[in-house]
Specification:
Helix content is 14%, strand content 22%. By secondary structure, the chain is an alpha+beta fold. The protein folds into three domains: 48-120, Antifreeze-like/N-acetylneuraminic acid synthase C-terminal domain (Type Iii Antifreeze Protein Isoform Hplc 12); 122-164 and 245-266 and 294-375, no CATH class; 177-237, no CATH class. It has a five-stranded antiparallel sheet, with helices on one face. It has a three-stranded antiparallel sheet with strand order 2-1-4, with no helix packed on it.
């Protein structure tokens, strides 16, 4: 009984000691928790500078004044040497090009006198960014999105090519043609050029036959040998037609800027007005002809009928300009795709070939059946509708 009480007292003393140690540790020895101290945020002062801008649309040649000019602040590190920083540097000068609202003025956009408007280079060159060039490519109604693109639009350029196999040495389209080589020996006459001339008889002077008497016979297309597994017969197969080119189409350029559509105006060209021809009164008994009898029918018809553009000028980098020039002279077909306004995203496209078309769009190759459609169809032609038939004018 006494021993149990002793153990109880010892256990109580240990518990109280541990409690005392814990209190001392947590209150005295543990470091005080560091509360986050709000650091003073130093606001960096951005050095700004005032530059001159246009506050409203200003046409070319307009005399600039305070009513169409204003100033805005931009960071000094964005200041370009050609920007104007004082209104007095611009007031009284003329706009060299059409200016839009909120456009930062540069020294290349203004001139001091009207005489400089026609002596400061082309207007088109002002719209080409530094490091870029402009190049023209041919277009038609189909390749130009029905003439929808206008200056300032962004387009993609799609190139379509026809590829064929070539002989590496001759650089000619395969398959090659072969000919029988007629070498020197009996039956070959010196100077023979064709197989028809190579013929000898008992009266031929064989002393004229030399080792230099070599000619070529008729040519034929080089084919290949095939073995028929059923007849075990070797056949020499030649192509039934010339090599068919293989078609491939791929996006060549993305986000090219349209600089102009059609021909640029020739500012130095003076339009010649043809002299009017005197009117001849109609003869009695004759009805007045409605046929146009002007001395310049082509010029008058050109004014009546709008001329459709056959060229478009794009702003591209110098390497893309060289590529476009190569493709134009290589005979490839260039097609434009109009981009949405403000969309500058780039999409990686895959080149379209016959194999890609069949696999990507799950187009099956038709099987050979013991029946078919009548009449025979060899070409895909659009159906002729009644409204499409143009009536033949009566004589």
């Amino acid at each position: 009984m006494r021993k149990g009480r002793i153990f109880f007292i010892i256990a109580l003393i240990l518990i109280l000691g541990l409690a005392a140690v814990a209190i001392v540790y947590f209150r005295l020895l543990q470091p005080a928790s560091s509360e986050p101290v709000a650091e003073a945020v130093t606001t960096q002062v951005v050095d700004k500078v005032e530059v001159v801008v246009v506050t409203q649309h200003t046409p070319r040649g307009y005399l600039l004044n305070e009513t169409v000019l204003g100033v805005i602040e931009i960071p000094r590190d964005m200041l370009i040497e050609s920007y104007f920083t004082d209104l007095t540097q611009v007031v009284g000068r003329q706009a060299r090009v059409d200016l839009e609202a909120n456009m930062l003025l540069t020294s290349s956009m203004v001139v001091d006198s009207p005489d400089q408007l026609s002596t400061t280079g082309s207007l088109a060159a002002l719209s080409i960014p530094r490091g870029m060039v402009a190049i023209s490519i041919p277009i038609n109604r189909l390749s130009s999105v029905s003439y929808a693109p206008q200056p300032g639009d962004h387009v993609n350029v799609i190139a379509t090519l026809l590829l064929v196999d070539l002989d590496t040495d001759y650089q000619s389209e395969t398959p090659n043609r072969n000919a029988a080589v007629l070498g020197a020996g009996p039956g070959v006459v010196i100077g023979a050029e064709t197989a028809d001339e190579v013929s000898v008889d008992a009266n031929t002077d064989m002393s004229k036959v030399t080792a230099q008497s070599v000619g070529a016979g008729p040519t034929s297309v080089i084919g290949r040998t095939e073995i028929d597994p059923l007849l075990e017969q070797t056949w020499y197969v030649v192509p039934s037609e010339a090599q068919r080119p293989r078609l491939v189409s791929q996006t060549l350029l993305q986000d090219a800027i349209v600089l102009g559509v059609g021909d640029f105006p020739l500012t130095d060209q003076v339009e010649e007005v043809p002299a009017s021809t005197p009117e001849v009164p109609p003869v009695e008994g004759e009805t007045e002809s409605t046929e146009y009898t002007s001395e310049y029918p082509e010029a008058e018809l050109a004014k009546l009928e709008p001329k459709l553009p056959d060229l478009i000028t794009l702003i591209v980098n110098p390497q893309d300009a060289v590529t476009l020039n190569y493709l134009v002279y290589a005979g490839s077909q260039l097609t434009l795709a109009l981009r949405p306004s403000g969309d500058d995203t780039r999409v990686q496209t895959e080149a379209t070939t016959m194999d890609f078309l069949l696999k990507q769009y799950n187009i099956p190759v038709p099987v050979k059946l013991p029946y078919g459609i009548e009449p025979r169809v060899d070409d895909l032609l659009p159906p002729q509708l009644a409204n499409d038939v143009v009536p033949t004018p009566e004589p």
